[in-house]
Design goal:
Elements (H helix, E strand, L loop, with lengths): L5 E2 L7 E6 L5 E7 L5 E7 L5 E7 L7 E10 L9 E7 L14 E2 L7 E6 L5 E7 L6 E7 L5 E6 L7 E10 L9 E7 L7 E4 L3 E2 L7 E6 L5 E8 L4 E7 L5 E6 L7 E10 L9 E7 L3 E7 L12 E6 L5 H4 L10 E4 L4 E5 L8 E5 L9 E3 L12 E3 L9 E4 L5 E5 L3 E3 L12 E3 L31
Parallel strand pairs: 1-7, 8-14, 16-22
Antiparallel strand pairs: 2-5, 3-4, 3-6, 6-7, 9-12, 10-11, 10-13, 13-14, 15-17, 17-20, 18-19, 18-21, 21-22, 23-24, 24-31, 25-30, 26-27, 26-29, 27-28, 28-33, 29-32, 30-31
Length: about 450
Amino acid sequence: MDAPPVVNLANVAAASVSGTAGAANTVSVTASDGAGHAVSGTATASSTGAWALPTLNLAGLNDGTVTLTATATDAAGTTSPTTTVTVAKDTVPPAVPTLTVPATVTGATVTSVTVSGSAEAGATVTLRVADGDAVHTVTATTAADAAGNWSTTANLTSLSDGQLTYTATATDPAVNTGAPATQTGTKKTTATAPQFTGLPSSITGDTIGAVPLTGTADPGATVALTAIDSANHSVSATVAANGSGNWSETMNLSTFDSGSVTFSAQATDADGNVSTVTTGTSRIGPRVVSVTLVNGGTAGTTDTNDKVVVVFNEAMSPGSFCSTWTSPAGPWTQRSNSVSVLISRNTSAPNDTLTLSSGCTTNNFGTVNLGARYTTSTGGNLTFKGTGTRPPSSVSLSADGKTLTITLGVLKSGTPAAGVSAGIPTYQGTANGQTGIATDTNGVPLGTKPSGPGTASGL
């Protein structure tokens, strides 16, 4: 007689018992649990002696050992000896397993995610992990040890980022499967690439020491910033995005050359995921390399042929100084009686200023701070402007666009001081009454603040 090795939830209502007997014999089968519960059934052997009871319902018997007995009776009423078989009945499913999952699966852990828990000792635990749309699933199987502990790893690379649903079911040795345990977690294997929301289109000498940058990233992410100029000078900084994902930082680029500068940003989120790199560009404007006062007449006083020479670190746009300087090739010069150089007295400090009007429709020649007092308290401001055939003042920009030279013509008004000790001049792009500011050939303006110290040489 053949019977299932184990009676479980799947087959308890229709256990299949079969065997062989004499042709056409009537086979009587009884199943009992030893506790006074019994179930019987009969079958008729075929002409070859085979018989079967395919749906013997053993649900009424207690779990434990079930004894099956069978006897065959032939047409003459003769009954065979009893055949006995014992099977185990277990129809109690295992308890719901416990399930411990990581709160977040990151790029560092996604290929080997550890999930653990407890279940009935010896049970087979099947783990199923699905992503948010349940289109992608990953399955792993492990066994609970004698203490009921289990652990497994799963590669979740194929699942989409977002919410993950973990489901664990336990199947006991009798192949009964219990109710599932479910936990949720998150998969986040890439950090959101940071974005620049505030990147200056141009950087002047006024801001180069503290260039403001703003942007967004994942809340709490660390953003690594790098700036590189065309000569491969680099500056780096690190800033944290706040709870809303906003960040801001300033970078000191005072060592950078004028010209193009590239900013890059890369974020590392709170889970250690690293984003792709975001880049942005800006331009650093021109700078004053030197300001030199050149004596052309009597030392220690301002007079005809004295010069102010301002040297820039890159080519300046001629038309940004003087709107009539439109020729594509230099040098560019304005020399006529319409060019007027004014040296104004600074009453609060020995630092008179030099400005000019040039006859240009637009005049953006800025201000030279002379670093000394070349005027007198009674002589008033000094004006140098040609009259008739007397030497005019002039202003010129060299052919390479880097050197601006202002030359004093004849003194028209005021009384200059004598015996003036040389000062330290500076230059700035703005001037009283000046509506604009000179730019380089890329349209990036000079700063409005005075340049660094010039050369100490008297007029």
